[in-house]
Amino acid sequence: xxxxxxxxxxxxxxxxxxxxxxxxxxxxxxxxxxxxxxxxxxxxxxxxxxxxxxxxxxxxxxxxxxxxxxxxxxxxxxxxxxxxxxxxxxxxxxxxxxxxxxxxxxxxxxxxxxxxxxxxxxxxxxxxxxxxxxxxxxxxxxxxxxxxxxxxxxxxxxxxxxxxxxxxxxxxxxxxxxxxxxxxxxxxxxxxxxxxxxxxxxxxxxxxxxxxxxxxxxxxxxxxxx
Amino acid sequence: xxxxxxxxxxxxxxxxxxxxxxxxxxxxxxxxxxxxxxxxxxxxxxxxxxxxxxxxxxxxxxxxxxxxxxxxxxxxxxxxxxxxxxxxxxxxxxxxxxxxxxxxxxxxxxxxxxxxxxxxxxxxxxxxxxxxxxxxxxxxxxxxxxxxxxxxxxxxxxxxxxxxxxxxxxxxxxxxxxxxxxxxxxxxxxxxxxxxxxxxxxxxxxxxxxxxxxxxxxxxxxxxxxxxxxxxxxxxxxxxxxxxxxxxxxxxxxxxxxxxxxxxxxxxxxxxxxxxxxxxxxxxxxxxxxxxxxxxxxxxxxxxxxxxxxxxxxxxxxxxxxxxxxxxxxxxxxxxxxxxxxxxxxxxxxxxxxxxxxxxxxxxxxxxxxxxxxxxxxxxxxxxx
Lengths: 226, 385
Fold this sequence. Notes:
The structure holds two protein chains of two kinds. By secondary structure, chain A is an alpha/beta fold. Chain A is about 55% helix and about 10% strand. Chain A has helices spanning about 1-5, 20-30, 45-55, 70-80, 95-105, 115-125, 135-150, 165-175, 180-185, 190-215, and strands at about 10-15, 35-40, 55-60, 85-90, 105-110. In chain A, helix 3 packs parallel to helix 4 (about 70-80), helix 5 (about 95-105) packs across helix 7 and helix 9 crosses helix 10. Chain B has two domains: about 10-190; about 250-385, 2-Layer Sandwich (Heat Shock Protein 90). Helices cover about 65% and strands about 10% of the residues of chain B. A five-stranded mixed sheet of chain B has the order 2-4-5-7-6. In chain B, strands 1-3 form a two-stranded antiparallel ribbon. Chain B starts with 10 loop residues before the first helix and ends with a strand. The interface of A and B includes residues 21, 63, 134 and 141 of A.
């Protein structure tokens, strides 16, 4: 850790209840620009270690023995709102993955992804770019439709996708890379990425607003971490 | 564990309550009859005494019935029920002493009026059809005994009340047994549901562990190459199949009769080369439409398998819109030249046209197939709700 401070390596924490994966990820990242500063086997330990080691990036498995993914993500963001969270999951149930992303994770990758894919996802997460699998794009698309259908008269606060954003998300869900999407829609790579980012931001903002409203209604106003 | 496994309300309790309501109502009716008739009684005071006994017994039964069932000694149940039968029989027989034979012949009711039905109903609920018939027979016999001389009555006058009593005892007894069986079935269902919840929870843990290992084997195997790569590939196939099942969670493939969650049907098609993207909430279609849609998708997948190199990947996207359900399928295979589908159909080879487009159009939906050589093929199937 001491050596890492000056070398510009990115401080990473791995949260996974499987020692096999914790060790495997650390091995995969040997000699890379990531330094594994903490490994946690459960949610409570993850929150303790995050406070002690201040990681910039967290690789999080949603299947932990004690806390749910959403609780860990909220705890991590409360400790450090700048922390980037990449979900790395073996079995992610649709609803769990969607909830994790709404709570503030910016990326989702399956454990079956190849090592190079994983490294690429880490790089993008570290830059603050969203990492979407086609599956996650399908979930986000579905969530916007669910929110729109929830009320007969959509209120101004119901987050909505622009036509372009819908188009981009559908293409991500159909397995196209950002580069292929950029080509097809004659957009820059950066613009495609911004569209994806916006779909996530709106959903997370809506989630925070809903949470804050719930907290105020329940008289918990002081504890809200926006 | 079983959050919704509250003990279901005992159906028999509802029947006992109905019996209590009957007793109170019948007592009120008897009181009304006695207060109007007592001046004509052979023993007016006797009439009031019998009414008093009936009132006291009604109060007792309303408060203490149903008598305790198992596992208390059987007598704790039988004694109050036998007493019920005896007290009621006594009140009916007391008519012989209180009321004059002439008035009975003239059509005046026994002093208990309808109240004599109480123990018949109670025995029916407690012991079923046979119990109801037995108590009905005892009370019917008492009713028969007070109507003397029998020659003064017509056959229908003598058989009316007994017939009613036996019928009531038998039918309520049958209903009570039915209630007990329904109760048992419900409790068994609740227990099974609790067990299924627990099994689901355990299965989730196990699935996650298995997936962790499969994903690791796949990754390390492919990285190592050679024979290990073959193992990795096999692990990958199992991983994709199991993950598709787990992702959907505990989703019910048939949330209501004749309605299907097409996510469940379509995720079954997933394998390492086929990725499915879907909403987190159920996407519902009537069963026939859902099945046709899945057949159309299968045909499209077969088409990919038949015309594209083996490593071709496929992505399926399920979208749930207010008026329709859209399922898109894209492959990264070689694609085909424009006009080829039409030429194939004209040449009598109906594969794609018939099995994919035809099925969807028969559902009132629309289907679109796009392809550019070198950029794969896209199929979009839209089915109205």
